[in-house]
Amino acid sequence: MKRDSHRRPFGPRPSVPDPRRHLLGAVLAFVRAARSRPGILRIALVGSLTTDKPIPKDADVLVTIDASMVLSSLARIGRRLKGAGNSINLSADIFLADAAGRYIGRICRYRECHARALCRAQHCSRRQHLNDDLHVVTLDATLVAAPPIELWPRIVRRVAVPVDTEALLVAELEQDERQRGDAGSTDPTLIESN
Fold it and tell me: What's the whole-model pTM score?
């Protein structure tokens, strides 16, 4: 039996010609909204937007939180980021780490926490909006400790930042800091080597 030779190739199929621009704009909006929330200790960019990959499948953000943070407002902001990705047939993930640098899971994609067949959380509803699907996704401890690009509370570049990521995200956040007069919180020249 011969298979259809006109099958679509695997991989992301965004509905816009420049998906990186769209995703970087969505990450910028996420950082601007999330950075003022109590309990947020650090926001970093991980994944394909830290590389020159022309068509990423999603935007990946790593948020470090304190143990007492109520996740409802972060979950609401995270759903907006996911929605921005979904609007162009892509996605987003908001990974969470605790203050000790341990990966604890992702922001749940559901607005309300209750048991459902599609929920992969190991302890659904134990902590509202935490998808602790560690059997599905984990982040390496070295990535959590030193993500490629830290976006808040200060900008740290540990990789060569792609031109569009620098212009559309990092430079915008640096401009925000200059406008707020927080010269001590961001050093635009700070670059760490691996």
Answer: 0.80
